[in-house]
Amino acid sequence: MLGEYRIEGRRASDIAASVERGVGTGALEPGRLLPPLRELAAGLGVNPNTVAAAYRTLRERGVIETDGRRGSRVRSRPATTARGSIRVEAPAGVRDLSEGNPDRALLPPLGDALAEAARRYAERPGMYGESPVDEDFGRLARAAFDADGVPDGPVGVASGSLDAIERVLAARLRPGDAVAVEDPGWGSLLDLVPALGLRPVPVTLDDEGPLPEEVERALRKDGARAVIVTDRAQNPTGARVTGARARELRRVLAGHPDVLLVEDDHGYGIVAQPPHPLAGATDRWLFVRSAAKAYGPDLRIASFTGDPETVDRVLGRQRLGPGWVSRLLQWTVAQLWTAEAVDPAVVARSYGERRDGLVRALARRGVRAHGGSGMNVWVPVADETGAVARLLAAGWAVAPGARFRVESGPAVRITVSGLAVADVESLADAVAGATGPAPARSYG
Predict the structure, then answer these.
(1) CB 444 within 8 Å of CB 378
(2) How would DSSP label each residue in 28-60?
(3) What is the pTM of this model?
């Protein structure tokens, strides 16, 4: 059943480590069926409960999945092999539009803000036992939430959006719970959910966000205990939840008040259109905003708010780990906000010229593409591997859609932050030549 690979160990931890080594080296390929509990226990000379504990650990780490009587098998994308490894290395001379980073030219200089943070630190260094949220940072973050109609709630700080999402899922859910996720969606999130021992339930979306009937299906039929929605600049499709779609989604969510709603507004600061928050549609919710795209990924700062119990659980668990996010970084971001170091309208216009220009240029060539907000364009294709290879040969590196898909069809993601407006037409020619007419279907 396992070919040449032999699982070893006498303790549950050793057995689990042996399986993980096999997965990491490629000896146990994705989809490979593992031996039944009793069979492996007999082969190793251990109690079946020991193997059961090892398999449970592997499920919780996102390495394997179990499907009742069909047994346990290595996940199609085990957590030990992150989706980020599904990538194209851009050789010299090839334009790299695959990484998903913001345009460095649009990021603000940090010198003055860091100097102000250092001056403040010199006056009063931060110490243990102080509030995890700096007063100025919390006040400014709460004011921004209020301005966009996010319901009242306490403010917390995390080391980026994914950190906040991981903490709230761990605080509110138990291993085995189902989580509704956008498909296509953020690759890191699609890795995180199974790594926490949770079961991802893919939800189809269009240019206006998740389809309400898909969310309803995930909640009723699949028993999802949490729903994760991207408000704007959805990665990889550029979808944006409109006002009409938000009203439909609120009606669906209102029928499931115990479900955890997580909203990711990572497009804050780079999208001109206001968000239409769903927060408050359920009793348990968290609204997360990252500073990465507008101010710089290395700042590692995300603000969040939510219902008091959920925020308290997240902050309580944070206290037991890192304790808090550096107040030096909080002071720096607060200073950037106060100085209005980023003009969202200017940034949104810059990305929009390139993104919208590429979508229009592709349409003129008979290629359907998506990109309503943010910095990414999603192009459905018939042959994903072939399209990526042909574009690479034409001098353009793009991201394979496999990094972002669960059940949705093949596609490629193009990040326009490294694209000049003058290069839009030549890129569109290359994409049209590499992909041909797009399949007549939506994301799913």
Answers:
(1) no
(2) S-TTPBPPPHHHHHHHHTS-HHHHHHHHHHHHH
(3) 0.83
Omega of the bond prior to 184 within 30 degrees of 0, cis? yes
Determine which helix (DSSP H) or strand (DSSP E) holds 160, and give its type and residue range: none
Cα–Cα distance for residue pair 355/417, rounded to 1 Å: 9
Which pLDDT band, with edges at 50, 70 and 90, does 265 fall under? very high
Locate 98 and state its tokens: 């695959």
Task: Return the higher-pLDDT residue of 87 and 373.
Answer: 373
Secondary structure of residue 202 in the 3-state scheme: strand
| Phi, psi dihedral angles at 373 (to 5 degrees) | -160, 160
Mark 11-38 as b/e (b = at least 16 C-beta within 10 Å): ebeebbbbbbebbeeeebeeebebbebe
pLDDT-based confidence at residue 442 (cuts at 50, 70, 90) = low
CA–CA separation, 211 vs 43, rounded Å? 49
Residue in 289, 271, 234 with CA at minimum distance from that of residue 352: 271
pLDDT digits (tens, 9 = 90+) for 94-116: 999 999 999 999 999 999 999 99
